[in-house]
Amino acid sequence: TFCRNEAAFLPRWIDYYGAQFGVENIYVIDDNSDDGSTDNLPCDVLKVPAIRGGNFNTTRMAFVGNFGRALFELYDVVLFCDTDEFVVPDPEKYPSLRAYIEKQSRNSAIKAVGAFGLNMVHAVEAEGPLNPDEPLLGQRQVAKFLPLMCKPSIKWVTAHWSMGTHGVRVPYEVDPDLWMFHFKFGDRDLLQSAADHRAAMVAEDGRSENTSWRRGGDELVRLLEAITAGVTDVTTIDDFKPWHGPRRDGLVIELPPGNWRAPKGSQVTLMRERPLVRVPERFHGLV
Questions:
Q1: pTM
Q2: Strands, E, within 53-171: which ranges?
């Protein structure tokens, strides 16, 4: 992962992926954190110089892509995601993410794989603040499925990620048995502080100014409250069912030629427009 001042989710990220693969195989690229969140971690931490010149996303992804390519000198497969993203296989099919990857690794035709992307939301009228000592899934049960978030998080080849890891320069498919839970909107108070922090970084050096990072906490909290307004009982929301068959093909597009990516779109717009779904109970407690 690549992060800066992610004290809220980085420990959970390390706990989850470290339990899957061993903390000795976890790499945190630290973009000048100053909140102590990357100090004394049980995994490898690579501290990088400040990214200057107004090309934050391009430089970040070039670095991540090249670092991932270097890891293939030592590893068979590489997974990249943000600290608030948790890739989880369907527990009815696989006992762990490691077991999922080991099975896919036996198929030489698979170059990369994407997960069904669920943006978890805090139903503020039905759910309290997150308890840091309890699993995330179960405390949070409501989400919005966003095709934009069906990112190719796992790959077996050195081809670079692109479009901020929403794409990769090799064909891939989205596997209905693989889900990605994104917790950016998973807690009202954490959303407020994280969004204010990111907006301040946009103002400071222009990073990610064309993304939702430019939107402050007040705006995104209003969005969260609007999309969950009236939800007082999460059990009334239907369980999410991933797409199968030909319909699933639309979750990966080739744009531009030689680059395969999740469909384009504004995350904020999609959060307004997509329906609410519920995470099936079999996932509770896994993250």
A1: 0.92
A2: 78-79, 85-89, 112-121, 142-145, 154-155, 161-162, 167-168
